[in-house]
Fold:
Amino acid sequence: MHFLELKLHANLLKAISELGYKEPTIIQEKVIPCVLHGKDVIGSAQTGTGKTAAFALPILQRILAGGNVVKRGKHVTALILSPTRELAVQIDQSFKSFAKYTNITSTVVYGGMSIEPQKDVLKKGIDILIATPGRLLDLYKQEYFDPTYIETLVIDEADLMLDMGFIDDVKKIEKICPTEKQVLFFSATMPDKFEGLTNSILRNPEVVSVAPRSSVAKSVDQKLYYVPKAKKMELCLHLLRNTIKGNVLIFRRTIFGVEKLEQTLLKNKYKVVSIHGDKSQTKRQEALDQFKAGEVSILIGTDVASRGIDIENLDVVLNFDLPNIPETYVHRIGRTGRANEKGKSYAFCSADEKDYVVAIQKLTHITIPVVEEHPYPLDPAEKPQVHKKKSGSKHKKGRKSEASKKKKTRWY
Ligand code: AMP
Structure:
């Protein structure tokens, strides 16, 4: 299929061609016509499938078809909700590049940054707003965000919204938008918990699902290392010295884990940056920019902070800790090996993570090849370590986020 067949405005086609997009991806082929027809959509797709353009292009097209956007005055007609700030910024950048040859404007608002400049932009009027839920509600309460003219509401990465505890905010936002609107709901996974929500906010939706997760895993050259928990750091250094070539995104489960690994790698003279939920937005963006620009070749992150971030040319994903949700493993490794190039992924498995491997292999229908020859093998008889639960976290620090104000301890 060619983009021409999707009946998009010439000025959008020009921008798409400048971006080097030759043909629509599968999700774009399926979603764009539905959105253009005004249908609600449930899209089961993860980052890397081209889902941003799948909703952004038809939204822009519909605004263009609605007449001269300058003359009719600037109102927010499309609202895109994103769980993380990085993802929100990325979506805004996509809108801006697609809208380059139009006079449609977009902006992004998120927490962790001063609200004043965001108020100023909203006051001047814009067409498309990309927002994280908490900050959007703040702006609404202060009467800087007016939902009256919203025609399309996009809920992106809905499963992550659920994981991060934003789903109630999303419901509130849906309610303040006009009843007559188009809703586009995207999620990498579709937990059963969504059924009630999608039934209540979507009308007769078109369900579009792309890339069964197992196929993503097949395009990645995966390796598994069994290693005692206490030896993971050494094994990581060993791999960085001897095996890993190119840039690497390392996943750890907790903020504490990310920081500990970062300190160790810095001590070992590696250039490394990190990204997690307790870092300020500026710091997170700085880290990401440095990694994307190739100034540092190692980025360490927690899942939630790094999920959805589009990093081109990622050579290696290292699962320092294995995720307890098998889909998360597939998201992580799905970031490497884009554009038909085979990426590499390594995973460390300690005695207490063996069940996770079983679940991952069941989901992907792939037996991950095990590397037996390495300096820190795990004794097959080793039992999982049991930790005593401490009350509260001694690692809680940093800026006061909405979550911490509500006395929720962040772990991502
Ligand atoms: P997304 O899934 O929206 O995060 O997109 C993943 C990456 O694919 C981004 O870098 C997009 O710029 C790129 N992309 C999206 N659609 C296309 C297309 N039709 N052809 C080539 N690249 C695309």
In short: The first strand starts at residue 41 and ends at 44. The radius of gyration is 22 Å. The chain has a mean pLDDT of 87. The chain has two domains: 3-211, 214-364.
